[in-house]
Specification:
single chain; 7-stranded mixed sheet; 6-stranded mixed barrel; Mopterin_OxRdtase_4Fe-4S_dom; Prok_Mopterin_Oxidored; metal-binding; MoPterin_dinucl-bd_dom
């Protein structure tokens, strides 16, 4: 066995430090590196499988492809592909303007720092508002809440600092996704919950399933799916009824308290308990703990954002957090002020932007951007719109939007309608199968990378830079190189900047002018990103295991100027709550299907790894054993899951963690359109049970990916 190389994982925002064992220049296996990492020695199964993934476990593309006139694909040199793509885009922009071009940023691109920032530079230089990403799918309700309620610049209390922590519809022990929305730390999440519990923190979970995270719960509320807004309105009702909300915080930083009081008045704990089919005592106890606590944090995972009334769900969860003053205050310690970008933290409210009410807006619906992005589920409508500014070309970086948006009967014809579809990925996903060009991209261990995505998310200051562990195959291309070369061919000069959410690209003063013909040096791009770092870039170079800087303690400061106010109950949210108050049960179907995450895959990635295929040969329909017994179903039976909008077939599996009346399946699993053979399909796409034209949310036009009314029956039975 040869040497080992220090680097870090790039599957999620935890960016766990790792070592790669080498043998004659070949990667053999990955193992956690706890020598410096603030998480200690930790890697989840996806990190442990990263070498297999890199080595072709999912059919890695070794060269780029071009669609032929007969619909097949043939290899193409990257320069030739760029020439064709550049000419096509130039012609479209000349005839139809920059709005004819759109970019979609997928899960696989979020930890590709240079690629993602070069993509942003390309979009800004081109001047198109059509930027889409996975964030406006599984997180868009949270962004709607940010736009309608506002936020505190000081951010929420950290889990380890709290007396009570409430998490709705999230399972961080599986997802490894934490701040700013969920209540968790991204890396080694179980250790963070253990530390919080050791400090006396009470943990409340609200989830139809007794998740892996629930082993840390002091109170587990298992509601019928689709009633989060009612439950949290009832908690707000109790806090206001009993006067246990944080009066000082609300008076200083919030407005609309009486509007909130009126909106939640009908949502008594008894009413919410009846709707959600949970003991009323649990709702009362959750509100009691929250009201009595000195320091609170409340947040949510994907569940409420995927479910019925998703925008109202997340709004009411954040309202409960605001009523409890669940934010860092002046004088509170800031555990991690950032290393690459250290910034002061102020106690200050940022008023709601309501950015979706302003131009630029979509051409298919009267709605605009959320944090600078258009709603991704409107992509098909934006392509098919009878409008001169409709989308005609789409570049997809590290994602599978055709699969992600659901309702393939609507989405697929739209993607086929594009004049140009380009997929940048390491494998042929469902979007790539429709593409005109598939650019075979490099993989993480072949890239220069710096820990920008985790900079403010680590539990303590830490930064890491990695050079490539191995060289990329000759036929593959770096993501950043694609966008730079495309800008060159189109005559669109790029400026490389340190961008992050909430920043207007044009307003960022520092940038690297990349208009010249010389291809950028990726290490110099990373050096630029570390220009303001608390750890000099040369020190990061000298310490590939990462650096934990010795920084002075940081504390939340008083606001340098008068801040805004959080809008507890704007008129449109009050209207949505009135609809929820008056609604009747919409569908007699006996079950509600919810989405679940699995530890061994992340969205579309790792679905075909050896361990995932062994554990999940199909996309199992998990059911409560009592429900199965009542319906005459046995473990492994073939079943048909049907909603008002579609049907899939799979195998049923018993899980006593689920409450009765619920079926649980994984999003983005199986082929785009399933057949009658789930084993041959290696899954089933629950997106077929969704609709992009019916039961959509306001503002973001999200379909229902969870709490879907369904029937379950064996094959061949009525």
């Amino acid at each position: 066995m040869g040497d080992s190389v220090k680097t870090f994982c790039r599957n999620c925002s935890a960016l766990c430090a790792m070592e790669i064992e080498m043998d004659e220049g070949r990667m053999v296996r990955a193992r956690p590196d706890g020598s410096v990492s603030p998480y200690g020695a930790y890697l989840c199964p996806k990190g442990l499988a990263a070498v297999d993934f890199h080595s072709g476990a999912e059919g890695r593309l070794m060269h780029s492809l071009a669609r032929q006139p007969d619909g097949t694909f043939a290899p193409i040199a990257n320069d030739a592909a760029l020439d064709v793509i550049g000419e096509k885009l130039k012609a479209l922009v000349a005839e139809h303007g920059p709005r004819s071009v759109a970019v979609y940023h997928g899960t696989g691109a979020y930890r590709c720092v240079l690629g993602g920032l070069m993509e942003r530079a390309f979009v800004a230089a081109l001047g198109t508002p059509n930027f889409f990403s996975t964030m406006t799918i599984d997180q868009s309700a949270k962004w709607v809440t940010l736009a309608r309620l506002g936020t505190m610049a000081s951010a929420k209390n950290a889990l380890r600092d709290c007396d009570v922590a409430l998490l709705a519809g999230g399972n961080p022990l599986v997802t490894h996704q934490g701040a700013p929305y969920a209540v968790a730390e991204s890396g080694a999440p179980a250790r963070a919950f253990e530390a919080a519990r050791a400090n006396g923190c009470k943990v409340i979970l609200v989830d139809p399933r007794r998740t892996e995270t629930a082993r840390f719960a002091d109170l587990l509320i298992q509601p019928l799916p689709g009633h989060d807004a009612a439950i949290f309105a009832a908690i707000a009702h109790i806090l206001l009824r009993d006067g246990t909300y944080d009066r000082a915080f609300v008076e200083k930083w919030c407005k609309g308290l009486e509007d909130l009081r009126a909106a939640v008045a009908p949502f008594t704990p008894e009413m919410a308990a009846t709707r959600a089919d949970v003991p009323v005592e649990q709702i009362e106890l959750a509100a009691k703990w929250l009201g009595e606590a000195r320091r609170v944090t409340a947040g949510s995972g994907t569940g409420p954002s995927f479910s019925t009334h998703s925008n109202a769900n997340d709004h009411m969860i954040e309202v409960v957090n605001a009523l409890c003053g669940g934010y860092r205050r002046e004088g509170d310690r800031v555990r991690n002020p950032g290393t690459l970008r250290t910034k002061p933290v102020y106690e200050m409210a940022v008023s709601p932007s309501r950015s979706f009410e302003r131009e630029p807006k979509c051409v298919s619906e009267d709605t605009g951007q959320l944090l600078g992005e258009m709603p991704s589920v409107l992509l098909p409508a934006e392509i098919m719109a009878d409008h001169p500014d409709r989308i005609r070309a789409l570049i997809v970086l590290g994602g599978d939007p055709l699969m992600a948006v659901g309702d393939p009967a609507v989405a697929k014809p739209a993607f086929e309608h594009l004049d140009l579809l380009v997929s940048l990925d390491c494998r042929m996903n469902e979007t790539a199968k429709l593409a005109d060009h598939v650019i075979a991209t490099s993989q993480p261990f072949e890239r220069h990378e710096i820990s920008v995505p985790g900079d403010a998310l680590y539990p303590s200051p830490f930064a890491q830079y990695t050079r490539p562990v191995v060289e990329k195959p000759e036929g593959c291309m770096h993501d950043w190189e694609f966008f730079w070369a495309l800008g060159q061919r189109m005559g669109v000069p790029l400026t490389f900047k340190f961008w992050s959410y909430g920043l207007n690209f044009a307003d960022i003063p520092e940038g690297l002018d990349l208009s010249g013909p010389q291809k950028p040096d990726p290490e110099e791009l990373c050096r630029f990103l570390a220009a303001g770092s608390a750890v000099p870039f040369d020190e990061l170079l000298a310490h590939p295991e990462g650096v934990r800087p010795d920084m002075p303690e940081h504390f939340v400061q008083s606001a340098p100027a008068e801040g805004g106010k959080l809008e507890l109950m704007p008129l449109d949210v009050a209207g949505e709550m009135a609809v929820i108050r008056d609604e009747q049960e919409e569908d007699a179907r006996p079950y509600r299907l919810i989405s679940r995450r699995i530890l061994h895959a992340i969205n579309g990635a790792y679905r075909h790894s050896r361990e995932t295929k062994r554990r999940y040969p199909v996309n199992f329909a998990y059911m409560n054993p009592d429900d199965m017994a009542r319906d005459g179903l046995r473990e492994g039976d073939a079943v048909e899951i049907a909603s008002e909008d579609g049907m899939v077939r799979t195998q049923v599996k018993a899980e006593d963690r689920l409450r009765p009346g619920v079926v649980s399946m994984t999003h983005m699993f199986g082929p785009l359109v399933s057949t009658d053979d789930p084993e041959a399909d290696e899954g089933a796409n629950v997106g077929q049970l969704c609709s992009l034209t019916r039961v959509l949310e306001p503002v973001n036009f999200m379909p229902r990916f969870s709490a879907i009314p369904v029937t379950v029956q064996p094959y061949g039975k009525n």
